[in-house]
Amino acid sequence: MTMRFHQRRFFAYLSGAPNLHTLSFVSSQSYTLVTTDRCVSLLSYGDAGYSLYKMEVDALRTGKADVVASAVIERPATHQSRIAVAYAVGDALFLQILAPHHEPLGKEDGAEASGCGKFELEAAPTCMFSVRAVGSNGGVFYGVMVCCTDSMMAFGYIESRKDISTTDSTAVCARLDNDQFAAFFPELATFTHTILAVNIFTSPEKDQGWIAFGCADGLVCVLHGSMQQGCLGGPFKMKDLQLNGPVTSVALFPKQKKTTKESTSIWCCNLLVTCAIGQAVVYEDLYSTSNEDQTSEVLVDSDTFDSIFAGITADIDLDGEVELLLGTDSQVMLAYKEGAGDDSNHAEDATTNSHVDESSSASPTSLDSSHNIWNELETISVAGEEVHPSATESSLARRRKWQRLARSQWDLETFGAIYSLLWRDINHDGVPELLIASSTGIYVYEADPVFVIDKLEHVLAALHTSSTTAQ
């Protein structure tokens, strides 16, 4: 069945132009952060449907300030979260901490915000993201990491165990000094690469997690640690990868793999990386001790574009397994699904066709890319007849582990260069929506209800059959 999505809303940007971090996921809140070079807005869903409201920030009212980045300080459930906005006024750089007032969101004039601190920055951030870390004394830091060209800074609140469980917190937003930073983030204290992209994944059991950094020099650094008091911490196992060209996005999608022991499984770390030079690479089982288990594959046709701006994982066909989505500079969105068949054969072919040598600076290439991506690899209808690709082309497509979905399976159309993608349930109906930030605006796509109901009926039928068999 075709994976069909319908556009439910389109929002023109309230002010400014998008960037690679325009859409920001906020795990503890019911809104999505939308950032352009002129403003920060909140995308949410309520009684009136989808809404986009511009945050009224005093420093941005004059129109002379340029927004550089933004992120959310996600505090404990007993405290209100904060939004950190980095902006430039002339040569001066500032970080403003804001408390959004959710009550006025029904008004058309925007969402009000009050200031909770303002800091001067020495350098422009290249990336900002939310962090939580446990200190040696049991205190927890809730804040944002501000990544600059050759350094990192952290701003936020250090909450004691007592403060976390009460609403009467005395913590004040501050910048961590060098000693505090090294205590909370020892692995990052000496990290000097320019970070452009970040992704964090926590296992469903909440016992371990991974964080991936994509850098301007093509380095990708992946850290695997354990969860302590709900925070991802060390000691970390680190894995470095090298691409040619700046990394535009990283997306972790670890999977469970059964072990030789009965009824046991382990998590294997898989990673999607997109590059500004126009390619996307999938790395699988990064921490495996066996070289045969570590595979990499350049996604077919991803290197036919000048740039790949965004890459995410999303279960678009609702079968429990993630697909890979790529946003390009040519208003084309590519979707990939893991092929059926023997995994070992797929892994072998992927390694043969498009292996990435981690010790080499050579840029990987997709050897079987087609210049017209909607041409050779797809079935074309001519005068009522179906014309299929040649046997050689079909065989080549089957050998790859990740296969690009044909137009007949992936019918979503977009307009403008695609800068940012997000897959999350913002209307709280149990099915995630696909958010697209293109050069023309924000698109909200919902899965086709008929498709969703059909999937649900199949699941219910399978459960009924299983329960009947068990009896």
UniProtKB/TrEMBL annotation:
GO cellular component: actin cytoskeleton; lamellipodium
Biased composition (Low complexity): 359-369
Signal peptide feature range: none
Segments for region (Disordered): 341-369
One GO MF term: actin filament binding
Domain of life: Eukaryota
One record GO biological process: cellular response to amino acid starvation
InterPro entries, sorted: Integrin_alpha_N, Kptn
Listed SUPFAM superfamilies: Integrin alpha N-terminal domain
PANTHER family: KICSTOR COMPLEX PROTEIN KAPTIN
Name of the molecule in the record: Cleavage/polyadenylation specificity factor A subunit N-terminal domain-containing protein
Species whose genome carries this gene: Phytophthora nicotianae
